[in-house]
Specification:
Layout: E1 4-6, E2 9-12, E3 15-17, H1 26-34, E4 40-41, E5 45-46, H2 47-52, H3 57-62, E6 72-77, H4 84-94, E7 98-103, H5 108-112, H6 123-136, E8 143-148, H7 155-170, E9 175-179, H8 193-203, E10 207-211, H9 217-227, E11 231-234, H10 244-252, H11 262-280, H12 282-296, H13 303-311, H14 316-326, H15 341-344
Parallel strand pairs: 3-11, 4-6, 5-6, 6-7, 7-8, 8-9, 9-10, 10-11
Antiparallel strand pairs: 1-2
């Protein structure tokens, strides 16, 4: 595995954290970086939200970048090409190092508003967005795109995919992140590694980042070795398991890191909560962290009981009681295996919350 670069921006180890709507906020990104992610992306942001938010809680939450995060990217979604350049520039002003355009979201309400994955059916508009943003950004700020393998499995959809991919590289994007499912598939079925291999072979020296069904370090290493893509973007597999990034690094060197022990988990859970209080305040942080706790519970040897304990959390004291009760003894942790619909069913990594 070779170091990743996004144009002039050095990233380093080729395992990055994808944009995760409702999850990849500032605390999650900081934790991921500390545990080995070389690059992270914030939650997908609507262009109009970025243009209209100026100050206050929402600005502090969504437009926050701190020194230890760099490099960190921001992902944009919208329908009007003219609004993308000023929104992208505002995100650069806020401190983000790269801009990513979302042409991938499969959520119905997003598609109905001609955003996200809809743009895979409209190459002209998608490429107009790419061209306008690339022309507006400073040369040192890389532009990337997030795509699925098409709207569906038809030959016409595949042709439109490669029209956008080739056109985006001609216009100066530094990389394309490609998810191996179609928009119509949403999160059903398996992500096609064969398609990712075809994309990388087609793209040649251009940078392709693969995404889809990456829940273990072995998944990520296999993706890179089997398809030839330049990096792996970990999405749902990083929620509640930020240790996956250190595990990928170790596995690439021929070492196997065990799952984090309960005391290691407790330390990260406590710090994640502290960071959330810093950005959300005491009351809101408790609600935000409940959904994270449910995901962290997958690494506990008594996962179902711990999951239920986090679900019942209603105030900060409840959170600390869960840690005191279930993470008191330093037992070995367990490895999450594959995709557990009980924890991830109905989740979209793309759907914008802003």
């Amino acid at each position: 595995m070779h170091d990743l670069h996004l144009g002039p921006l050095p990233i380093g180890f080729p395992a990055v954290q994808a944009a995760l709507s409702g999850y990849s906020d500032w605390p999650m990104r900081v934790i991921a970086r500390r545990l080995g992610a070389s690059y992270t992306l914030c939650e997908v942001l609507l262009d109009q939200f970025v243009l209209n938010v100026t100050k206050g809680r929402k600005a502090r939450r969504f437009l926050r970048v701190t020194d230890e995060e760099h490099p960190c990217g921001a992902q944009l979604m919208g329908a009007e090409p003219a609004s993308f350049p000023p929104a992208a520039l505002k995100l650069v002003e806020a401190g983000f190092d790269a801009i990513d355009l979302n042409f991938a979201c499969p959520v119905k309400k997003v598609l109905n508003r001609c955003r996200g994955g809809h743009l895979l059916s409209d190459p002209a508009t998608a490429l107009e967005m790419v061209g306008r943003v690339r022309d507006a950004l400073p040369p040192h700020v890389p532009l990337t795109v997030k795509m699925r393998r098409g709207t569906d499995d038809s030959p016409e959809s595949c042709e439109r995919f490669f029209t956008i991919l080739d056109g985006a590289f001609r216009l100066g994007v530094a990389a394309a992140t490609v998810h191996g499912r179609t928009v119509r598939q949403r999160y059903e079925g398996t992500s096609s590694r064969a398609f990712l291999g075809e994309v990388k072979q087609h793209a040649g020296a251009e940078t392709i980042i693969g995404s889809g069904d990456l829940f273990t370090a072995q998944d990520c290493l296999d993706l890179v070795t089997e398809t030839g893509v330049d990096a792996a973007a970990v999405a749902r597999g990083a929620i509640g398991n930020p240790w996956i990034f250190a595990q990928i690094r170790a596995l690439s060197e021929g070492r196997v890191l065990p799952p984090p022990s309960l005391h290691q988990q407790r330390e990260v859970l406590a710090e994640h909560y502290r960071l959330s209080e810093e950005i959300y305040g005491v009351k809101h942080a408790c609600r935000v962290m409940r959904k994270f706790g449910i995901k962290y519970a997958r690494l506990h040897p008594q996962s179902p009981a711990v999951r239920d304990a986090f679900i019942a959390v209603a105030e900060p004291a409840d959170w600390h009681q869960v840690l005191d009760r279930w993470y008191r003894e330093d037992l070995p942790g367990v490895a999450p295996i594959g995709l557990d619909e009980g924890y991830y069913g109905g989740f979209s990594e793309d759907e914008p919350r802003a």
